[in-house]
Amino acid sequence: MSRELERIDILLRIIVAAQGDAVSPVQLQKVAFLVGQECPNDVPSDYYEFVPYDYGPFCKDIYQDVEELERRGHISISPSALGTRKEYRATFRSRDIEFSHMPAPVAEYIAKAVEWAKPLSFGELVSAIYQVYPAYATNSIYNG
């Protein structure tokens, strides 16, 4: 019997989908947001609640959950190359995790969304989200 999908599993899958590359906080926030928007019937009932914030959809609970993933040894959190932000990487241990309990639409969407988000700059990613979800630009401080 497989276990039930938890919201933290989705964060881990996003980070693992980067295939060893670093995931920035904005990438994690925006891809997690998109998963909830595009796969609403396949995410856990306690999935992240996003609010319009400085740079679009934001949920502070994500940061608590990534810290839990680090405590479990699934990811590493380190300063970015610029040292101004954090970045998340899957550990070797987590790259072998089976995600068989994750609904196929969620797993497939995550793979596509991470591939889409990885090459975008901060501004390009935020702007792309605003184009599709303009309601999340209401409290924005970003003018890009």
What would you say this structure looks like, in words?
The chain is α+β, with helices and mostly antiparallel strands and 144 residues long. The protein is built from five helices and four strands. The protein has helices at 7-17, 25-38, 61-71, 104-117, 122-132; strands spanning 51-53, 56-58, 75-79, 86-90. It has a two-stranded antiparallel ribbon with strand order 1-2. Strands 3-4 form a two-stranded antiparallel sheet. Strand 1 and strand 2 form a beta hairpin. The model has no long low-confidence stretch (mean pLDDT 92).
Describe what is shown at a glance.
The chain is of the alpha+beta class.
SSE diagram, text form:
Layout: H1 7-17, H2 25-38, E1 51-53, E2 56-58, H3 61-71, E3 75-79, E4 86-90, H4 104-117, H5 122-132
Antiparallel strand pairs: 1-2, 3-4
Helix pairs in contact: 1-4, 2-4
Provide key terms for this protein.
144 residues, alpha+beta, two-stranded antiparallel sheet, 5 helices, 4 strands
- Stretches where pLDDT falls below 50 for ≥5 residues? none
Largest sheet strand order: 1-2
Q: Tell me roughly what share of residues is in helical segments.
A: 40-55%
Strand content: 5-15%
- The gross shape turns out to be globular
Mean pLDDT: 92
Beta strands, count: 4
Distance between the termini: 48 Å
- Tally the helices: what do you get? 5
The biggest beta sheet reads:
2 strands, antiparallel
Rg over C-alpha atoms, rounded to the nearest angstrom: 15 Å
Q: Could you say which structural class the secondary elements and strand pairing correspond to?
A: alpha+beta
| H/E element sequence | HHEEHEEHH
